[in-house]
Amino acid sequence: MTALVILKGSTLFTITRLVQRALGLISLVVLARILAPEDFGLVALASIFLVLSTDLSSLGSEPYLLQKTSVEDVDLHTAWSVSILAKFSLFALLVIASPALASILNESRLALIIPIASSGLLIRAFANPAVVLLKRKFLYKKIFVMGVLTKFISVTVVIVLAVNTRSFWALIVGDLVGAVVSTILSYVFVSARIGLSLKNWASQWGYVRWVLPQTLLGSLRGQLDKFLLGRVLPAEMLGGYHVSRSLIDVPAVNLLGPLSEPLLASFAQVRDSGDWMRRQFRVAFLGLYSLVFPLIAIFNIFSDEIVQVVFGAKWAAFAPITAALSWSFVVWAGGNVLTKYCLATSRTRFLFFYTCLMLTTMTIVLLSVGAGDLVGLVYARVVSDLIVFSGVFTYVSMKDRVNMPRLLALLCIPLASTILSTGFMMSFDSVGAPTSVVSLIVRVSLLCGVYVLCLIAIFQVLKKYVPECEFYVKLAQSVVSGCAAAVKEKF
């Protein structure tokens, strides 16, 4: 599997997520102007248990199937059967526990919201597990169509309901509709005979017994802040925090995430070739951080404008929280690549202890920093996560001879480009500018344009000496040539 094929699959998957997130952002923008921050706080509380249940019920089936040398029918049957058992069990548990959860969080409405929202587990339980075969073969065109259709229908339902009911129930119903559509499409686009069987459960359990706790702990780490804050903050403040996180998720989950999505399959393809695997590791890091650094700059320079343009003036007070959350991109991107690398090399136990360490440090930070200082809490969490990640990453790099100094030197390329473009933008923007959609687009585009020019210039200078830079230069030339050929053929 060549790096170019991997990157093409990654790019198409990224486009899929970008379209999905664009539709989701449209929904969020509409809802932010209709609903109050308190409504978003209520949905955030309900989502804590839904996200945990969804992640836990997956039982590591997808990474298990992705890392296998070959996938047989019995593997798919086992994954489907386990999914049904897990999701039905968790649904029953949530229904029984919903009154107690509502009492713990001092929100009586959760007693009804949680059972209704969690019924999506029952629907998703029957999704076709053979969809993972598309990812193994890098056939992301079908995944693109499935994802976009599901999101479009779901968002349409959400917006129509929100406009007519002006209620947070629009979000919950839209999610259930999305579950139905995605489950149906999984069978329309992937032909496979699926049946009930637990024959290969022992084999799958041998792989996921460490992946599953790691997945649960990782999910818990992503929801623990909302749980702890939800017990001490008013719903309005929690809603503002939740919306800020949703905005940050736009590039994190749907840009950086999809770009790293094919890495597990690609690392598995070359795990027996140490040099190639280490090179792909460095190429992935350079590519991801070439996006991370300018994203952080954008959210810190334009946080006030972004929040007001996207959500409206009533959300302006939460702009500092958005800027602080953007620094989590540093750990998020690196941790994602490191996780995929460790999964491909069967280090599931190591990932479990890594996630435990991250969860422990985050819990200490959340309990130590006053909840009234949300911005300080976010920065404290980012710093603690960065310290843990740096230590773990250094350990893996030394053990696998990834060449840490070389990797850090590579990261200096996008960092230097970001500093140069940010400096230019700050001097150019010193006189200030009015907050408007056009103004924001022009200024962000200017920063991005200068950044890309700086990055291209550095890559061109270093391509003869740095193979990772040469890879991206050739890739860019290939894309430009392909586009030119397509245009020439069409006209």
Automatic annotation (TrEMBL):
<feature type="transmembrane region" description="Helical">
    <location>
        <begin position="315"/>
        <end position="338"/>
    </location>
</feature>
<protein>
    <submittedName>
        <fullName>Oligosaccharide flippase family protein</fullName>
    </submittedName>
</protein>
<keyword id="KW-0812">Transmembrane</keyword>
<feature type="transmembrane region" description="Helical">
    <location>
        <begin position="18"/>
        <end position="36"/>
    </location>
</feature>
<feature type="transmembrane region" description="Helical">
    <location>
        <begin position="78"/>
        <end position="104"/>
    </location>
</feature>
<keyword id="KW-1133">Transmembrane helix</keyword>
<feature type="transmembrane region" description="Helical">
    <location>
        <begin position="377"/>
        <end position="396"/>
    </location>
</feature>
<feature type="transmembrane region" description="Helical">
    <location>
        <begin position="440"/>
        <end position="462"/>
    </location>
</feature>
<keyword id="KW-1003">Cell membrane</keyword>
<feature type="transmembrane region" description="Helical">
    <location>
        <begin position="168"/>
        <end position="190"/>
    </location>
</feature>
<feature type="transmembrane region" description="Helical">
    <location>
        <begin position="350"/>
        <end position="371"/>
    </location>
</feature>
<keyword id="KW-0472">Membrane</keyword>
<feature type="transmembrane region" description="Helical">
    <location>
        <begin position="283"/>
        <end position="303"/>
    </location>
</feature>
<dbReference type="Pfam" id="PF13440">
    <property type="entry name" value="Polysacc_synt_3"/>
</dbReference>
<feature type="transmembrane region" description="Helical">
    <location>
        <begin position="408"/>
        <end position="428"/>
    </location>
</feature>
<feature type="transmembrane region" description="Helical">
    <location>
        <begin position="110"/>
        <end position="131"/>
    </location>
</feature>
<feature type="transmembrane region" description="Helical">
    <location>
        <begin position="42"/>
        <end position="66"/>
    </location>
</feature>
<dbReference type="InterPro" id="IPR050833">
    <property type="entry name" value="Poly_Biosynth_Transport"/>
</dbReference>
<comment type="similarity">
    <text>Belongs to the polysaccharide synthase family.</text>
</comment>
<feature type="transmembrane region" description="Helical">
    <location>
        <begin position="143"/>
        <end position="162"/>
    </location>
</feature>
